[in-house]
Design a protein that fits this description.
Strand content of chain B: 15-25%
Distance between the termini of chain B: 108 Å
Largest interface: A-B, 18 and 14 residues
Oligomer: heterodimer
Largest sheet of chain A: 6 strands, mixed
Helix content of chain A: 40-55%
Structural class of chain A: alpha/beta
Helix content of chain B: 40-55%
Chain lengths: 282, 699
Amino acid sequence: MNIFNAPLLFLQRAAQRQLLKPMVFGAGLAFLTAGHATEMSFGVLNQQPPTETAALWNPILTYLKDKTGIEFRLKMGATVQETDAMSARGEFDFLYSNHIFDPEFDAANYRPIAKWGGGPLIGQVVVDSNSPISTLKDLEGKKVAFPSKDAFIAYMVPRSVLKQADVKVETVFSASQQGAAVQLSSGRVAAASINKLFSERYQAEGKGSFRVIYETEPWPNLPVLAHPRIPKPQVDAVKEALLGLPQDPAGKQLLEKLKIKGFASVTDSEYDNTRRVYREKL
Amino acid sequence: MPLHRPLSLRLRLLLAAALVITLHAVGSITMDVRDARLAAHQQQEELGQWVVAGLGDSLANALVVNDLATVQSTVERLFSGRRFLQLAVFDEAGRSIIDLRAKIDNQPDVPGWFIRFLDINEAPSKRMLSAGGVQYGVVVALISPATAVEHAWANIKSAAGFALLAMALFWGAFTLLIEFSMRPLAELSQTVHRIGSGDFTAKAHDRGVPEFGDLVRVINLMTQQLTDLIARTREQAASEIQAGRLKDFHAITTGEQENIDKLSALLEMGLRHFGMDGGAAAAQTTNASIPLLTRGQQAPSDVLALCAKLRPAENQADALALPNLSAADTDGVGALLAAPVAFAGRTYGTVCFWRAQPQDTAFHRVDMEFVNLIGQWMGFSLEQEGSERQLWEEKERLLVTLASIGDAVVATDTAGRITFLNAIAEDLIAVPLQDAKGYRLDEICNLVHEHTRKPIPNPIMDCLEKGHRVELAAHGALVRRDGTECPIEDSAAPIFSLDGQIVGAVMVFRDVTESRCVANQMEHLASHDPLTNLPNRRAFGENLNRVLTGAKCGSNKTHALCFIDLDHFKAVNDTCGHAAGDALLQQVAQLFLENLRGTDVLARLGGDEFGLILAHVSEEQALETAERICTAVRDFNFGWGGRIFKIGASIGLALVEQTAQSTDELIRQADAACYEAKHGGRSRVCPYRAALDQKPADN
C-alpha cells in the first residue's frame, strides 16, 4: 500500500463503517504511521505445520488490520531454528514466541505486550495410555520426543527436571509439538514432552491417547512481543486490539471461530523465571 | 417371387438369430465404448484433482514460510513428461514460481480416431493455496490424456473380445437349439412324403413343440380321412364290379396258338378271382381258321373279326371301348370292351368282353380299368412263366457245364460261405456239398505254402476284398481235414450283379501233384552232383552269394568258406580206376557230412575238390570244424580191391565278413589258402592271410 494513499483509504473505510470512535482512533493511527511502512511482519514460533499456523494466525492478523489499520503479514521460517534466527536478526515487527527469552536473543530486545490467553503454560511428559511406564525414572535410557531444543515448556523445563532426577534419556527432536506427539502415537518413542494445551487438543481430535507421567508447574504462556523500533502508538494499538478481543463482538466471534481464549495482559517480569531456565541451559 | 421365398425355415431362423446376436453385441460394445469414454473423462479429471489436492498441503506449507526452493523441488520431483502436460505454481499475484511443461507430446499408442472419439478435455486442474483466509498462490496441473486414452483403449479391446466370445457362444447355442427344434419338422416332412407317395400307414409323431403337435394331429387326421376315403372308394369299385356291370358280357381271349390254352386258363382264373365266373370265358386263336373254343354261350363268329381289328389297339394304354356298335357291321355284337394281354412291352394277345345288345351310355371308367387290369395280369402271368422256364434252363445248363469240366469249382456268397461245389471240388476237398454249404473254405480245409508250411491267404476272401480276379500264391497246397494234401493251382474272381454289386465269388482250382513233382525233380538235377548227391558248383555259388549278401546287409556274424582238395586221390583213381575214384568221392562226401551241421553247405565243385560254407561261425569255430574234417579224412581208410589207401584233405579257409568284396574274391582267397595247405605238407588246414597273395596261384 502506498503510504500517501493510506490516510485516504482509512477515511474511506471509516466512512463505510460510520463509526466515530474507531474513526478518531484511526485518524490518530494514520498520523502515527505516516512515517513507516504500512505492512508489518508478524512472526510466529513453529509450533504447528505452517498452514495450520497460518489458519490460526491469519484471521487474527486480519482482525488486527481491521482494528489498527496496519497491514500485517504472517512471516515465519521453515523451521524453528530459522524462525529463531530471524528473531535474532529482528526481522519481525511483532513476534509470538518465548524463545526470545533465551539470552542469545537479548540483542533483539523484543518486549512483551500480551500473552496467550487461557491459563498458564504447562508442559507434560506423556506416554501411550497402554504403556507400562509410570514415572520419569522408567524413562531411563529410552527415547523421548521433544519439539526442538529451543522449546521452552516442552524441552527446556522437562530437561531440567530430568537432569535433577538424574534420568538420562535418548533425545529425539521432532520439529514441532505435533511432530513429537506423532512420534509417540506411532510408537517410535517411549514418551513425548509436549505442551499440555496442545496435548489435550491433539487427543480430543482422536489422534492419540496419552497418559501423563509428569507435569511441570505453571509457566506464563507465550507472549506477543513488539520490536523496539515500532512506535509506541502502534504497539499500543495492537496491544489494545489483542486484549480487547473478548469485548469486541467481531473479536468474540473470531475467538469462538478459532476456539481460543484470546490474549491476556502481561508484564516483562513474568518471564524472569523463563529467562532463568534459558540461562541455566548455558 | 419375393427374395425371401427361397430361404428355408432353418436359414431364416439362423439369420434372425444372427441379427439378434449381432445387434446385442453391437449394443453391448456401444455401451462399453460409452462407459470407457465416461471413465476416461472421469479418470482424467480425478487424476488432475488428485494431483493438485495431494500437492496442495505441502506447497501451501512451503509458501506460508516463503520456501520457494521447496516449492520448486516438490514440483520438479513430481513432474514427468509422460503424465503431465503442465505442472505449475503461481504466487498470489499470478507470478510464476515454477512452470513445467512437457517438451514432447506423448501420443498414446492407439488409433487416432479413438483419441478423437474420446475427446478428453485438457482443461487444467487448479487448486488455490490458501490458509486462514489468505491466498498464497495456486497450483495448476494439466494431465496428459495418454494414460486415460490407453486405459480406455485396453478396456474397449477387452470388452470387444468378450463380446465376440459371447457372440460365438450364443451362435453355437442358437444353432443347436434350431437344429433340435427343426428335427421333428424334418421327420414330419419325411412322413408327409411317404403319405404323398401312397404309404398311408405312415404316422407322424408328436415330438416337437406344441405348435408341431397341432400340425401332427391335423396331418394324422387328414391321413386317416384319406385312408378311409380310399377304402370306401375301393369298396365302391369292388361293389360295382361285384354288382356285375359286365356280368351280362361274354369274355373271349385271342392269342398265338402256342399260348391259347394258357390264355384261356388265365382268363378263366381271372374271372373267377373277380367273381365273374359264369362260364363266359372263351379263347380263340388270332388266326380265325379254328372254330371258337367256347364255354357256355357261343360267341358270334364276327367277334373274331372284331378282335382282329383290335390289333392296332394292343399298344394303347387304355382299353378299346365300343359301347354302341351297329348290328349290321358287327353281326350281332352290340357292345365291346377290349384290352391287350401284354407286359413289359411284349404282347401276347387280346382280352375282349362283348354282348349282343348295345348300350346307350359310355362304359364306366371302372369297367375299362378292370379290362385293362385283366389284360395286364394275364400278360404278367405269361411273362413270369416264361422267365422261370428260362432261368431253370440256364441253371441246368450251368450245372451240367460245371459237372463236366475237369477243374474244381467252389462258389460262395459275399461272406465267403460256400454255396456250391462241383464234383471235382468235392473230391479234392473231400467234403460233400451238403456238408460244405454255409462254411468258409478255410473252415473245411487249409491252404498252405508247399515248402514253408505257412498259411496262405484264402483267395476267395482276397478277391472279395479286392473286387477283382486273384491268383493263388505259387507253391500252394490244399490240406484236407484228414491231413492229406495235394499241391494246387487256382484263381478266384468275384461275381457281379447287373448293377455292379459283388454278390459272391468263384474259385477254380486243380490238382497239380504230378507236374509239381516233375518240376521238383528237374530242379534237383540241375543243382546237384549226380555222383555224391551234393550241391554242384552252380548251387554252391548261389549259396555263397546269399551268405555274402547277408553279411554285407549288416549281420555282425561271420561266416567261413573252405576249399577242400583231397590228397592222393589221383593215385587211387589211376591205380584202381574211375569206379574206385567214384566210390572214394561218395564215401568221403558222406564222411564230410557226418562231421558237419545240418545248416552247413557242402558241395562238390568238380574232381576231388569240395566247397564248404560254414554259416554264423567265428574264426575259431571254423578252424575247429576244418581241423575235425581234416582229422577224419586222415583217419579214414579207403579199401578197394583188397588194398587200403590212406588219403588226406588240404583245406583252405577264408572268412566271409562284412567287408568282403565279392564271391570271386572269397573264392580266390580260399583257393590261395588251399594251395598253401597243399604245398605246406598236405592234410592240413590253412587259414587265408594277406601274405598268401604274394604266391603264385597255380594248382
